[in-house]
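Subject — a protein and its fold

Tokens — whole-number codes for backbone shape
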Amino acid sequence: MRGKSGVLVGIGILILLAVFPAGAWAGSYFSSGPTMPGGRVGANVALLPNGSVLVAGGYDGSNRLSSAWVFNPADGSFLSTGSMGTARQQSATVPIAGGKVLVAGGLGNSFQRFATAEIYDAATGVFSPIAATMSVARQAPATALLPDGRVLIAGGLSPSYLASAEIYDPVSQTFSATGSMTTSRAFAASAVLPDGRVLVAGGLNSGSGLNSAEIYDPATGQFSAIPAVLSSNRSGPFAVSDADGDVLVAGGDAGGVNSSNTADVFDPLTETFSPFDSTIGTGRTYASASPLQDGRAITFGGVASFNGSPMNSTVVFNSAPYARSAGGAFGDQVVDTTSPLRQVRVTNTGSQLLRIGGAARIEGGDAADFEIRSDGCAGRSLNYRQSCVISVTFSPSDLGPRDADLVLDANTDPVENVFCLCGNGVEAPVGPTGPTGTTGSTGEVGPTGASGPTGPTGSSGGTGGTGPTGSTGPTGPQGEVIPPSDPVIRQTVKQRRLGQGSSFVFARISCPSACRINRATGTIRAGVGRKAKVKVTAPTTLPAGGSGSARVTIPPNIVKRLKATGRRSRIGFTVVATSNGGRTTKSMVVIVRAR
């Protein structure tokens, strides 16, 4: 959900889809969905493998229910299915492997909280109890399906507010303890983030609504509080993640008589919340939300005000179109040679139609090194998760990293969608030495001439005396002295995207004679407020004929700020090297872009 795009989505034919001309921005929006057969608060909902949604239990204003429906988004119908073994509302409800749904805990008709669980089988439409129970009864816990197929169940009301958490393993059908939350809370919203961690936001603690949030890491089994807070206290909100990892946290009780109709967007890259620029219509608390397979989602029931009647209405959300690319990294390519065709795939991850305008184009410092050979995206309209392909080649004109921008105009915000094309120019490899050829034949030996007769050896004479030493000759001319050479510093990159990594080599240092690197510093000058230093590493000395690299590492706090603002920044570098031949000072600038 980029640019405050949404995450929840609505019902197929019952949604009035907005039609946008090519190039016009399509914003996210909420709209009314179909009417349920009856009002329900705190229903237990989960997406089923065939794209329909289970809606089980909940409170109808008089009783907690055991009955269940299956909602079909293709025609907006609600069909009855098997009933739960126990009437309950506000349970931990999560789809698990094998087309099944776990329903654990919740609140019963005598205001008792449950530690028991049952499983719904979509193939048979039947609920079955399981022997295992949670360590403690839980009403309205935070729940999430972890990447490994297990289920996180955290907090809840029992009747005190809980911080403890546990994990359900569908293979062994058992519950086991995991790390506790930093804050006791029930009625919180929860969602899985792209890296497998789980966001838990808002909720209620001892009668007070919460605006705080924390994140569970399944790798460590621990929760960590985050500094970011919601725009208001939210007890009983709902949350859904979109395909790009952003999370919409909407509705809930902010402490007044009426439920909130506002929403916040959580960005997992910066771990910050920002107000969403659209409302959900009528405010609702204790509503139950589920994603749909077409990229949208639906929210069922809830209450509009304190002690209000259970709602039988639904609200749907259609997220703005968002173009995502893959395949723009070419790797190493010999300078002045052309790579094979590489397919850059553009996919729409928003639920609204992505309308691509004219032909794609290449911009940026090394644009001449890349060429579009075919454009299968120009003028295309892409539904959710549909893709098109642009074929590109890479011909590096110089050694080192080379990058450019592949730009597409579409009905997105902003209109220009910029994707990275990157590669690395390298020298041609030296091939192995070929085999030695065969030795040629030896020519004929010519005839040997006749030897003359050897004369007799004469007798040796006596040794003569030593003559006087001759005068010294003139001094010869002085030979040419070759002076040592200066160090050579060559910049290897002029532009960098954070998506390529926050640590990179920006210069190479070569020393014909032994040299010393006296200084290697960098300062980031724009896009992060005041200028700040960045870490630069380089060898302190190099032998004659040696070479080394200067590398910069951008601090994580600066990386977060750049990603949050989307602004470009300039890093100024100074590298100084000295040898017997002299001193070389090189000042360089690298442009860093958030995307």
